[in-house]
């Protein structure tokens, strides 16, 4: 149900006096929408199914009423909260402790993997009234007999969709079976897929359903932009954003654990204070890393979705989606790490040309467009660096004792017979060699919506990466003579045949192959020749003289879940061309087939951009 908004205050919701006093002491003035709608039903003992995003105040929505119902004098677990991650368990436990500040003899215990059993066993002996834990560690304690659920009055599933995504479905069912049949259940989830509906149907009794719109609380407080950029230039664009954006703390999201360490290492090499945050780190290391961000010893965390669950650091002013999430609802979770509790925040999304479908899916789920921004230009970067350089000079002039250096420069100008301006220019050059002030080379260009070569894969592909069907590759299947008459491709003598390890059995179509090669090499689609798709591989004709870095990069490009692993065809299969061996590094050199100059050296340059690591 979607209850209309009212001006109800906490004092009118029916909380117990001790809890209501704690709310007032904590400075809470009025409940959020999720709190206003959930608290009365939970106080009545009703089961509840709540749909709300992170940052909407849902922890207080279930913690405040359940604390009002517990018996603090009864020393046994009465409330069990299951969370998907250790970070969220700690955050929820901390919230319970704060709300129960006026309850005598109250204890809450977070239990999670990665923490020593001995410490948890000693704390369990104190019989805490509230247990907050991850499913795996909760199951371990139940099996050991160190956690008894016979006194449980309420069971909460927080971020249930994430727990199911992480494979905890069977664990949750097992824990439900160990709890008393008569207990109150509250299930909170950001999304409502069929799996969540099944859990609600099987485990909740006549539940009240509360829904909070995805963009009603968190998204509106965050300034959002997206930047369309090719994969080669993502790192360049990111470092420029970091130089030009005034940020306090930043969270950068990537898809994989390996990517967190790789990107963090690259950022550190560029001089940024960055560290990874992923599931392979032990709990002590994760907590220490987050604490360093809170204390200002770190400025940037590079994280995966799971690792960032429950992360609430006030310093985070910016969230950058370096890799766009494949699940649109995850976007709201990610940017919810900034703009919390009404604070301002900024979110930047890097979108590869073929990922525009995912961007549109995100815009649908948040019910608003994400405005486009151009990648920071070389001119803007130059101006920013000059400004910082100027400020450093002025600061040094006012704060440092420079008498020795005045005398040194006077000596140099006299002995070497040079002007003071010449010496100053030389010193400025020496001081900026590592990061030049004048950024002259600017390979990054904005990718426009009508850029056909960059968006070839995006047109005709769904957001899941599969083609639209037989008609989707009509342009690539049309007769070669038609394309030749239009002047769309070079002469056959300038083409070289390559083998790629993607074929019919992988679901490959000409459109996907053309799109991948065009996007990842900077090669305009009109320069790509015949494509012959076999069962387990394909043959594609490309201009001769492909640059080495592009050839190496294409080996690692994926189409339909398969790496291209591009290689030159053998001599006999290459349409009469005297092919080179693998030792020739993919057909690079001063001449192309039949002794002609390589196509990339001609006017027009098919390969326009070079990939950068």
UniProtKB/TrEMBL annotation:
The molecular function terms in GO held by this entry are: ATP binding; hydrolase activity; RNA helicase activity; RNA strand annealing activity
Q: Where is the Helicase C-terminal domain?
A: 236-382
Keyword list, A-Z: ATP-binding, Cytoplasm, Helicase, Hydrolase, Nucleotide-binding, RNA-binding, Stress response
What does the UniProt entry say about where the protein is found?
Cytoplasm
The text of the family note is: Belongs to the DEAD box helicase family. DeaD/CsdA subfamily.
Q: Which residues cross the membrane?
A: none
Q: InterPro entries per the record?
A: CsdA_RRM, DbpA/CsdA_RNA-bd_dom, DEAD/DEAH_box_helicase_dom, DEAD/DEAH_RhlB, DEAD_box_RNA_helicases, DeaD_dimer, DEAD_helicase_DeaD, Helicase_ATP-bd
Q: Which catalysed reactions does the entry list for this protein?
A: ATP + H2O = ADP + phosphate + H(+)
Pfam families, per database record: DbpA, DEAD, DeaD_dimer, Helicase_C
Where is the short sequence motif Q motif located? 8-36
Q: Which domain of life is it from?
A: Bacteria
- Compositional bias (Basic and acidic residues) at which positions? 438-492
Q: Does the keyword DNA repair apply?
A: no
One GO BP on record is: ribosomal large subunit assembly
Q: What class of enzyme is it?
A: hydrolase
Domain Helicase ATP-binding positions: 39-210
The name under which this protein is listed is ATP-dependent RNA helicase DeaD
Report the protein's function. DEAD-box RNA helicase involved in various cellular processes at low temperature, including ribosome biogenesis, mRNA degradation and translation initiation.
Q: Provide the gene name from the record.
A: deaD
Annotated spans, Disordered: 438-497, 575-613
Q: What Enzyme Commission number(s) apply to this enzyme? A: 3.6.4.13
This entry carries the following GO cellular component terms, namely: cytosol; ribosome
């Amino acid at each position: 149900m979607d209850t209309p908004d009212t001006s109800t205050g906490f004092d009118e919701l029916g909380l117990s006096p001790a809890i209501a006093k704690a709310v007032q002491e904590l400075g809470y003035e009025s409940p959020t929408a999720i709190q206003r709608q959930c608290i009365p039903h939970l106080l009545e003992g009703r089961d509840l199914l709540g749909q709300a995003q992170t940052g909407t105040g849902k922890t207080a929505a279930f913690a405040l009423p359940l604390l009002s119902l517990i018996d603090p004098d009864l020393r046994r677990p009465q409330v069990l909260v299951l969370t998907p991650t250790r970070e969220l368990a700690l955050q929820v436990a901390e919230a319970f402790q704060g709300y129960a500040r006026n309850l005598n003899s109250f204890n809450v215990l977070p239990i999670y993997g990665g923490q020593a059993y001995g410490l948890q066993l000693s704390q369990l002996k104190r019989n805490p009234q509230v247990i907050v834990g991850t499913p795996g560690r909760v199951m371990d304690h139940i099996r050991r007999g160190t956690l008894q659920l016979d006194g449980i009055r309420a069971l909460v599933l927080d971020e249930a969709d994430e727990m199911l995504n992480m494979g905890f479905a069977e664990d949750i069912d097992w824990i439900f079976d160990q709890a008393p049949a008569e207990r109150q259940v509250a299930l909170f989830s950001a999304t409502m897929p069929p799996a969540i509906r099944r859990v609600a149907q099987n485990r909740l009794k006549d539940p009240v359903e509360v829904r909070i719109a995805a963009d009603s609380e968190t998204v509106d407080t965050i300034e959002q932009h997206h930047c369309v950029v090719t994969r080669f230039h993502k790192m360049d664009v990111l470092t420029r954003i970091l130089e030009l954006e005034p940020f306090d703390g930043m969270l950068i999201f990537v898809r994989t654990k390996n990517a967190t360490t790789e990107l963090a290492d690259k950022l550190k090499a560029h001089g940024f204070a960055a560290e990874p945050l992923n599931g392979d780190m032990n709990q002590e290391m994760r907590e220490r890393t987050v604490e360093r961000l809170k204390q200002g010893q770190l400025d940037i965390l590079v994280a995966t979705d799971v690792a960032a669950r429950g992360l609430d650091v006030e310093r985070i002013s910016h969230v950058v989606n370096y890799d766009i999430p494949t699940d649109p609802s995850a976007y709201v979770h990610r940017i919810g790490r900034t703009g919390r509790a009404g604070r301002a925040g900024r979110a930047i999304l890097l979108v590869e040309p073929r990922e525009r479908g995912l961007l549109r899916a995100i815009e649908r789920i948040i019910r608003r467009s994400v405005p486009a921004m151009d990648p920071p230009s070389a001119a803007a970067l130059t101006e920013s660096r000059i400004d910082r350089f100027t400020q450093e000079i002025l600061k040094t002039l006012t704060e440092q004792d420079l008498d020795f250096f005045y005398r040194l420069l006077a000596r140099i100008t006299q002995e070497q017979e040079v002007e003071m301006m010449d010496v100053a220019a030389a010193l400025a050059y020496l001081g900026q060699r590592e990061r030049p002030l004048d950024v002259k080379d600017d390979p990054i260009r904005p990718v426009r919506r009508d850029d056909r070569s960059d968006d070839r894969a995006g047109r005709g592909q769904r957001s899941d990466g599969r083609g639209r069907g037989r008609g989707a590759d009509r342009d690539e299947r049309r007769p070669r003579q038609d394309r030749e008459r239009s002047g769309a491709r070079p002469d056959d003598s300038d083409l070289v045949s390559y083998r790629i390890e993607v074929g019919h059995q992988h679901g490959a179509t000409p459109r996907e192959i053309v799109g991948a090669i065009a996007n990842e090499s900077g090669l305009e689609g009109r320069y790509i020749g015949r494509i012959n798709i076999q069962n387990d591989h394909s043959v594609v004709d490309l201009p001769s003289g492909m640059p080495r870095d592009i050839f190496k990069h294409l080996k690692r490009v994926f189409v339909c879940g398969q790496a291209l692993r591009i290689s030159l065809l053998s001599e006999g299969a290459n349409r009469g061309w005297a092919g080179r061996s693998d030792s020739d590094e993919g057909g690079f050199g001063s001449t192309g087939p039949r002794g002609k100059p390589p196509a990339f050296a001609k006017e027009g340059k098919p390969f326009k951009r070079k990939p950068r690591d």
